[in-house]
Amino acid sequence: MKVAAGGFRSTAALVRKELYSYGISPVFYGMGVFFLLFVNIRLFYFQRFFARDTASLRDWFAAFPLAFIIVIPAITMRCWAEERRLGTMELLLTMPFSEWNLALGKFIAAFAVLLVFLLFTVPLPLSLLVLGDFDGGIILGEYAGITLLGASATALGLFFSSFSRNQAGAFLGSAVALLVVTLIDRVNQILNLPQALAEALNFLSLNFHFESFFRGILDSRDLAFFILSTLLFLFLTTRVLIFRKWS
Question: Alpha carbon of 62 to those of 36, 50, 68, 133, 183: distances in Å?
Fold first, then answer.
């Protein structure tokens, strides 16, 4: 029990430290503004939401994974790469934190930032509910799906940051990886692939697993995919930390 309590306190301390550093970083505010502008301009200007006269926010939520390709790498790029630049990585690894404490602390802080961005989107659907017959259950399902997708993408961004030498490399690596795993299912729409290969690409696609949430369905397979992929990338991050600790 004492070990568990000590681990919790270590993780909580790291989360507080990370949240403070986000709060004083211009990247936090810049990415927040970019995210809100991107999803809303796409809906009202490019998708012409009011002209279509449909009580659905599917196109709005479809923009979230696209925005995450830029936003999440910008949030996570500094997590480990900045520690290496400042020379504090070795200090962290020698402190009484387990690798899981470190990975979870960084993840919780970065994910909390993303949740703040999502929270600021809530007023838009609330204001639109009075204008049409929107299905509140579907909207809640879409929020649940985008939150799970964001968790998986954040863990992926942290993994790339853990072995990158600088923030630019961490940003580019995770952005390219997110671009691939988000849109890889689109290959099936362009090429006539064998069924087995098409199903494999769909399985790897974050966007594909988000599709069921558009219908307000909480598919256990998609829930399992997002949760397990998040845990997988956190586990891989701890392996990188162990390697750095003993190399």
Answer: 14, 17, 11, 20, 12
Matching residue, tokens 């729409």: 189
Segment of 22-31, 40-49, 94-103 carrying the highest mean pLDDT: 22-31
Contacts of 24 (CB under 8 A, 6+ apart): none
**Number of C-beta neighbours around residue 219 at 10 A:** 14
Contacts of 46 (CB under 8 A, 6+ apart): none
Is this prediction's pTM over 0.85?
yes
CB 1 within 8 A of CB 91: no
Domain boundaries, the chain: 2-246
Q: Cβ–Cβ contacts within 10 Å for residue 178, how many?
A: 24
Return the SS3 of 156.
Answer: helix
Chain center to CA of 148: 8
Which tokens belong to 106? 């960084």
Computed over its alpha carbons, how large is the radius of gyration of the chain? 19
Taking residue 103's Cβ as centre, other Cβ atoms within 10 Å add up to 28
> Mind listing the pLDDT tens digit for each residue in 118-165?
999 999 999 988 888 888 888 999 999 999 999 999 999 999 988 887
